[in-house]
Amino acid sequence: MPYELYYWPGIQGRGEFVRLALEEAGANYIDMAREPNAEATLLAFLERTDLTHPSLAPPFLKDGHVLVGQTAAILLYLGDRHGLAPKDPARRLWVHQIQLTIADLVGEAHDTHHPLGGDLYYEEQKPEAARRTKWFREERIQKYFLITPESQPA
Ligand SMILES: N[C@@H](CCC(=O)N[C@@H](CS)C(=O)NCC(=O)O)C(=O)O
Predict the structure, then answer these.
(1) 13 CB under 6 A from ligand 1?
(2) Is the pTM of this model over 0.90?
(3) Residue 147: which pLDDT band, with cuts at 50, 70 and 90?
């Protein structure tokens, strides 16, 4: 049975992390964002109240009866199933840690455009966005590039 990947149609967004893993694994999947009525299907899924493991937001992946949300958790699941991550638990955890750090970076990059909140358009918070972006660009983002690789001694 193919996986079903649910994400917003028309944008790459966080869905792209999952697509990359699925493609790398050569997995059989349906990209639901490319199916007819994709947005309505996604919204209907998000509104379901009968799910044992509901998701806060897309992307989420359906594998038969298994439903996984949160990009990093989906990648953890796919990494295990398709041998994309190391077998050694410490190294597998390191890969997961990197992905969680990337998730933080994605969230912070998003917030540069929506510093006052996601309920406001970027156009409604341009001065604050410029201020936040200056700090993000000049100080914050550097910290992400200082993460030391696994091969270096702790
Ligand atoms: N922590 C979640 C964030 C998911 C997320 O924010 N998804 C966005 C699209 S990329 C969304 O649709 N958000 C709607 C919402 O948070 O209500 C992840 O990494 O998957």
Answers:
(1) yes
(2) yes
(3) confident
